[in-house]
Design goal:
By secondary structure, the chain is mainly alpha-helical. Helices cover 48% and strands 9% of the residues.
Length: 65
């Protein structure tokens, strides 16, 4: 296993006032961790198994422009 943990990045995420949108994709996604990351700055967690994921992503990107 490699990469960063939420604990090691939490202060960095708090330093920036931008929402983070996380997407759970595949069976190995840690959905609780992704939800916690999204919640730090008011972002959104999206489960990719939802039927309307393309609609959700389209709304997110249109809202941020």
């Amino acid at each position: 296993e490699s990469g960063y943990t939420l604990r090691s990045l939490e202060n960095v995420i708090h330093a920036f006032p931008y929402p983070i949108y996380t997407i759970g994709y595949g069976g190995n996604a840690d959905k609780d961790e992704l939800r916690r990351i999204a919640d730090i700055n008011g972002g959104i967690f999206i489960d990719s198994s939802e039927d309307d994921i393309s609609y959700i992503l389209k709304n997110i990107f249109n809202a941020e422009m």
